[in-house]
Amino acid sequence: MVKLKSSYRCSSCHHEMAKWVGKCPDCGAWGSVDEAPMLAAAQVKGGGQRAAMLPSTPATPITQVDGHATHANPTGVPELDRVLGGGLVPGSVVLLAGEPGVGKSTLLLEVVHQWARRSESDRSLYVTGEESAGQVRLRADRTGAVHERVYLAAESDLATVLGHVEQVRPTLLVVDSVQTMSATDVDGVVGGVTQVRAITTALTSLAKASGIAVLLVGHVTKEGAVAGPRTLEHLVDVVLHFEGDRHSTLRMVRGVKNRFGASDEVGCFELQEDGIEGIADPSGLFLQHRYESVPGTAVTVTMDGKRPLLGEVQALLTVSHMPTPRRAVSGLDYNRVAMVLAVLESRCGITVGKFEVYAATVGGMRMTDPSADLALAIAIASARDDRALPTGMVAIGEVGLAGEVRRVGGITRRLAEAQRLGFTRAVVPPKSGTPPPGIKVTEVSNVSDALRAMARPAIVR
């Protein structure tokens, strides 16, 4: 049973004692000891005892909590605000992870520049532990991110960083990177588990106590995961992954965790020599503009999070003189390409076993959405017979092993995006709902029906 007992606490130094005394034994104040009732729980398993003290601040009904005190402030970078859920919340901690050279520092330098331009009361502090202040200034000159309210500090000691925060009093703090920071009072090597956890905890406490928005840069492992302990992702409020191919200018910020918004949003950027720029309409990067259709190409609409993206799938078949024909895949799942080839040969009678098959996407786009299966099957069949598909048509649907075309999510949003970009026809799975005006929809239940719907009956053999 839980019973009520009393303890005594000094109102000056909050020292606790078991009985009342006239003079506090800790601070020496007279008459400052008052009774502080507390709840003592019964004996627990293991012989321990847990005591519950009455809080100094009572719990507040949720209806009386001010929800406007933690509103998001736009950073000035719309694509990043899209992923963050509107902007940075005061007192929040955001972890941005990505491979070396992908453009993390360039993006954050643009963020601190736009943040400083918001108002005269907004200051941003950029702390770098990997570069000198001069190197950051050179990048800022190149990208046009120089502003008088952007402060730079090349420091790797946590205590010194906290001192810079006291002097500058910024509303935005960027730490590049958390793995290069060190705390002298914590054991472990720089970048180790103990150091990273302690530094992140200290910066999180700073953000919550002062209301400063904190952006942390994190390294990634060979597998692409955030380096450091798993608790690092639990300590912060938002986790973002910055992705991109070194051979392409396209960069994507993908939300993994977000306490203030959706965690499946994607922001698109283009990395250029003079900085990084957000792309509000990235579908144009993934479509090959041409005046006439080419055999072996098909357009589909994939969903990256909640964002519909149009992409072009290309296929090329050539007669092979090798015992085992080659299969080369770029931007697509190799296993799904092999499955679609098997379905075409087994269910549709299209012989592809003696051909070398090359399948790829345009613009460096990576399609992991199964909804691209139908477009891939149509592109392969088109390349097999060297017949171009009708212009202005998209194909959306997942292909099963029985040759059936399965429904996919967000079909209405996909079709609306295709119609916005000028496509007038679509081949979709059955029972896909009412299409948006301006686009003609043909529902198909299997791959053979889809090939016939492309107005190329000779494709099916």
UniProtKB/TrEMBL annotation:
Motif (RadA KNRFG motif): 257-261
Gene3D superfamilies hit by this protein: 3.30.230.10, P-loop containing nucleotide triphosphate hydrolases
InterPro entries linked: AAA+_ATPase, DNA_repair_RadA, P-loop_NTPase, RecA_ATP-bd, Ribosomal_Su5_D2-typ_SF, Ribsml_uS5_D2-typ_fold_subgr, Rubredoxin_2
Annotated binding of ATP, by residue: G98, E99, P100, G101, V102, G103, K104, S105
Annotated GO MF terms: ATP binding; ATP-dependent DNA damage sensor activity; damaged DNA binding; hydrolase activity; zinc ion binding
Matching SUPFAM superfamilies: P-loop containing nucleoside triphosphate hydrolases, Ribosomal protein S5 domain 2-like
Region annotation Lon-protease-like: where it falls in the sequence: 356-461
Domain RecA family profile: 69-220
GO biological process: recombinational repair
Signal peptide: none
Free-text comment on this protein's domains from its UniProt entry: The middle region has homology to RecA with ATPase motifs including the RadA KNRFG motif, while the C-terminus is homologous to Lon protease.
Family (UniProt): Belongs to the RecA family. RadA subfamily.
Role: Plays a role in repairing double-strand DNA breaks, probably involving stabilizing or processing branched DNA or blocked replication forks. DNA-dependent ATPase involved in processing of recombination intermediates, plays a role in repairing DNA breaks. Stimulates the branch migration of RecA-mediated strand transfer reactions, allowing the 3' invading strand to extend heteroduplex DNA faster. Binds ssDNA in the presence of ADP but not other nucleotides, has ATPase activity that is stimulated by ssDNA and various branched DNA structures, but inhibited by SSB. Does not have RecA's homology-searching function.
PANTHER family documented for this protein: DNA REPAIR PROTEIN RADA, DNA REPAIR PROTEIN RADA-LIKE PROTEIN
UniProt name for this protein: DNA repair protein RadA
Source organism: Antrihabitans cavernicola
Underlying gene: radA
